[in-house]
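Tokens help. Consider this.
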Amino acid sequence: MAASVFDSPLHARLFPVGNAGRLFTDSAAVRAMLLVEGALAKAQGAQGIIPELSAAAIHRASLEIAIDPGAIAAATGENGVSVPGLVAAFRTEMNAPEHAQFVHWGATSQDIIDTGLMLRLRQLLMLAEADLHDILAHLATQAETHAETPMAARTWGQHATPTSWGAVVADWGHALCDLRDALPALRDVSLLVSLSGAAGTSSALGPDAAATRAAMAEALGLGDPGRSWHVDRGPILRIADWLVQVTDVFARMGATLTALAATDLAEIGLGATGASSTMPQKQNPVTAGVLQALGHQATGLRAALGPAGRHMHQRDGAAWFTEWMVLPQLCLGAACALQHAGKIVATLQPDVDRMRANVDRTQGLIHAEALSFALARNLPRPEAQKRTKSLCASARDSGTPLETLARSAHPDLPDDLFSAAHSLGDAPAQARAFAARARTRAA
């Protein structure tokens, strides 16, 4: 088994990550850090901190020069960070020592690494938003089409009251809409440039360090935090939390779909995949299972990421290394969940007839709550509940439908009391409200 399922040729189709995989490679990290070095030099050249000619040369070289990650592996192992080796290799490749001497002027390794990471996380969030857009469009269609398609709601795995398939879909969809709508604020407070120098004091960056940071932020399209966040990992943790929440919604969806696709319910079709090596009749809900597994992984990774926010003093290697080990897996897990969820919602096949049949096979017990409230119109509520429970027990023991027993004892009950459509409540409205919400923002 590969060290990570996301890097495994064997498991590439089971745990696909789409274009997000390109963001979490050594080459992508090096490229991002070179872009940061170029933006820093350009800002400092405009301020006169370093010669403008040298700044232009550094900026141009940062766009053109490629550094082999393997070539700086030894230096990274010795120094604990990749930037010293990267800067040395970059200066050599520039082949212009009169300009190369001004590379990385006043910055520290963490400034370059953290800002480079933010460039990649920005791309990750853009990809996630695009995936959410497509997923919500499919869910909106399902919700609208099946706003009044009755099915059994289940609590603790048991029949509760009727709901609609559209309302079930809307529950997932509203949660995803909340996450989609949270993205602008998340970007504003988390996608930040880092430029504070060795101990977060900007002492080597000169008297106009704040202006340099602001110019660098503008050049890279990142936010200016107005301070050092070397040991305040809030920006990273907020993005991680958002990714975990996305993964959790899909894990919840996967769990419900797995149950609905089970042989005894068979209310949902999840495609033709999932063959067994020995049982020809099997069609396992593989994709739904992957979503649940990714949710389990995300929970563990978020817990492991916690210590990364507990830096000692002004920088802590152990906390920082923890972040490097955990965050990419968490990001790729969310990307994988989005890939699988997109596949699922595009091919969801609700079996409307089976849903209705499963409602009807409860002997009418699914309408017990509606019966108790109907009886409460003429009886004290406790007495109405007591009679309803007694009627339910009789229905179970005798195999007689609850409606037959209830109408025999109370002939004046409403005609439509035992109709699933009568008991849907605002489920259709919830489904249509979600569909409208998803499409309004998408437009």
In short: The beta strands are 150-155, 158-164, 268-269, 349-350. The first strand starts at residue 150 and ends at 155.
